[in-house]
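Quick look at the format.
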Amino acid sequence: QLRALLRAGKEYPTLQIMLPMVSTLEEVNAVKTLIQTQAKLLGLTAENLPALGIMIEVPAAVMIAEKLASEVDFFSIGTNDLAQFTFACDRGNPRLTERYDVLSSPFLKMMGDIVAKADAAGVYCSVCGEMASNPVEAMALIGLGYRNLSSSGASYGRVKSMIRSVNVEEVTDYVKTLLKSQKRTLRPQLLAYAYDHGIEIY
């Protein structure tokens, strides 16, 4: 399968390889070594190789995001799994609803740290999962510095309306201020901000 991807990459330069559930730098380096070995056998040069990226979806990857950014071409943050592992709870369990909130200050600070490290390394960084498909949560992501969101088809229109109605500089300043809060969740404040500034979140 890897050989097939490398062959295809020569014909289709936009093809990319993304590694899921990465938790150590060694995992990335092992794959890079394998790619280089197979590329040599196929007679491919570095210019012909597909871009290599990783999913950031476990806390261990967040802790070494700076080192990972030096080894890959892009990040894709899987917020569903990352939040579930961070809060140590099943997001589908109604008894744990109050514990699981991606608009809590700790989780938003973590998301902000990831995109800051990606930007510093010049690594393309996108977000997928339910967070990128929820208008108010996507608004918070924009405030943290994210500019690439992967929304579900059903939510695309709503997220697009939010983006068209938000002032990026203003929401960035607000989110930075809001992160100083000690409240359990910042959702009410973000909703109020959207209402007060005419941002379409529904």
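Next, a different chain entirely:
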Amino acid sequence: SSGGSASEGVGSGWDVLGSYSAMDGLNIFAGYSQVESNQDAAVASGDKKERVLGATYAVGSITVGYQWSKQEYNLAAATSTKHYENDAFGVAFNINDDLSVSYGIMKSDRTLANATTVEAEAQSLQVAYSMGGASIKVAETQGDNLKYTSGSTQDRDATTIALSLAF
């Protein structure tokens, strides 16, 4: 047979993951994955690979976290995705047993085989309050260049309000 697509199963893959609690409140984690891809130069220029590194640190009522990841697809067509590279950061603060506030931001760069890169970004601020069997959660979220397309038509803002009652 001839040709093929990058989505065909052509071999094997493997993953390795690890985490380490370095000291009180600090957790470090990493992962790597590789899957054999079609090596037809017109379809893909290498195997699919994913890497992730990150850490969380909790002290008292505050937790912060950071994660970097990269997914390499190595597709060959000029407008196909070569790779995504992502950065995410979050912080949460428990003001008391009933009230918490958190903030997160994620940036993701999509690079095409023709070297064009577009950055998508999302950020969110959340507040949660509970009292007995009732809780209310509010999130204000903003996304820019969603779908990795520049321009204001791909920007979105949303406010989410959730009320939960337990009987």
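The longest strand covers residues 117-131.

See the schema section for token definitions.
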